[in-house]
Design brief:
about 250 residues; alpha/beta; Rossmann fold; N-terminal domain of TfIIb; four-stranded antiparallel beta sheet; 11 strands; globular
Length: about 250
């Protein structure tokens, strides 16, 4: 899975409008809501560390997990520049092995939509379950079916001084797979380097997700319309799931 390796150089430029402190605030509001004390966290599909660094700066011990070494290199550089201690591990979440059990696992920005095989998603859920302490939470988001299915056939352009990007999307209604072909031209001195990456996301339906979670042993605590404590609406484009690994008997 080589997606994002070329994109690593410009990923932060593309995400510049996102308030990652708001994401950290939302996470803390959720853990407070479910009375889940949190000391250490694993953030899956962490990319260039944008969701890791605000949490680490607040005193949490955070492991940033990603499959793309280019992304992790950028994340480590930013942590060093900011004087923030965080731990970055190059791992495929389908083969997740953390150095210790954690209180919380997160996976944001449709990282789980990239797991397009349902059996692989079940495996990820099992790995997360095994990585959590009893009573620990797993918070993740998913792009809604309606968002992905309505995005097929679009073409988007970005033309800036040092780069040009073209997104071409398609949606397969038989497989519920959204495919994004990204063609980029990045300035390298006097020349431009071309790259092409193909990204695929699976649009999972809510009943399937809840079934996979229950089969793993998770307790579904709630599902929210993004950055709220309201239930998902017909126009919800990103739903946040909160699930818990059951407490050990006698500790709940």
């Amino acid at each position: 899975m080589d997606q994002y390796n070329k994109l690593a150089d410009i990923y932060d430029y593309l995400m510049a409008g996102i308030d990652y402190e708001e994401w950290a605030d939302y996470m803390e509001a959720i853990t407070d809501r479910f009375n889940s004390p949190t000391g250490n966290i694993a953030d899956l599909a962490c990319g260039t560390g944008n969701t890791v660094l605000p949490l680490a700066a607040r005193g949490y011990k955070v492991y940033g997990i990603d499959i793309a070494p280019g992304m992790l290199k950028k994340a480590a550089e930013k942590a060093h520049q900011k004087g923030i201690r965080a731990y970055f591990l190059e791992q495929d979440m389908r083969r997740l092995e953390l150095p210790e059990e954690v209180d919380l696992v997160t996976c944001y920005h449709d990282g789980l939509n990239y797991i397009i095989d349902p059996d692989d998603l079940r495996l990820v859920f099992q790995n997360v379950f095994d990585s959590l302490r009893p009573g620990g939470l797993f918070i993740f988001d998913l792009n809604a079916v309606e968002k992905l299915s309505g995005s097929g056939g679009d073409t988007t352009f970005i033309d800036d001084t040092d780069m040009s990007l073209i997104w071409e999307t398609s949606y397969n209604r038989e497989t519920d797979i959204w495919e994004i072909c990204l063609t980029g031209f990045i300035r390298r001195g006097e020349l431009y380097e071309k790259f092409v990456e193909v990204h695929k996301e699976k649009a999972y339906k809510h009943p399937d997700i809840t079934r996979f979670l229950e089969e793993t042993g998770f307790l579904l605590m709630d599902v929210y319309h993004g950055f709220s404590f309201e239930p998902p609406r017909p126009d919800t484009r990103r739903a946040f799931y909160v699930v818990r690994k059951p407490f050990a008997k006698g500790n709940d």
